[in-house]
Amino acid sequence: MRAAETRPSGWRARGGRGRSAVVAVAVTVLSGCQPGPDITVAGSYFPSWMFCLVVGVLGTMLFWQLFTRTGLDPYLGPRVLVYPGLVILITLAVWLSVFRG
User: Fold this and answer.
1) Burial class (CB in 10 A: 0-12, 13-18, 19+), 15
2) How far is CA 43 from CA 6, 21, 39, 46, 49, in A?
3) Are 67 and 76 in contact (CB under 8 A)?
């Protein structure tokens, strides 16, 4: 009797099609995984999104001052939505223009 005939049903040889399919799927899924850009501040590494968030908050504060000085602030929609939306808009614009451009 040959060795192939004595194997239990459903048994696969090591490194067969199943393993290569798993490796192919893993390579495809993980190919886009890269570490995010870091910024060195005083010897420590900070993620780029932290820098962009700080710029977004500071930019929103500048826009708030501009809106109040020009008298536009009372005419804006609900401030609870306008200013956080402006923070997000500035943050994403800075991140896309600096780190993904």
Assistant:
1) exposed
2) 63, 43, 9, 10, 18
3) yes
Domain ranges of the chain: 38-98
Main-chain dihedrals φ then ψ at residue 26, nearest 5 degrees: -65, -40
- 55-88 pLDDT, tens digit each: 999 999 999 999 999 999 999 989 999 999 999 9
Q: 48, 53, 56, 47: which is closest to 99 by C-alpha? A: 48
- SS3 category, 32: coil
Answer yes or no: are the C-beta atoms of 51 and 42 closer than 8 Å: no
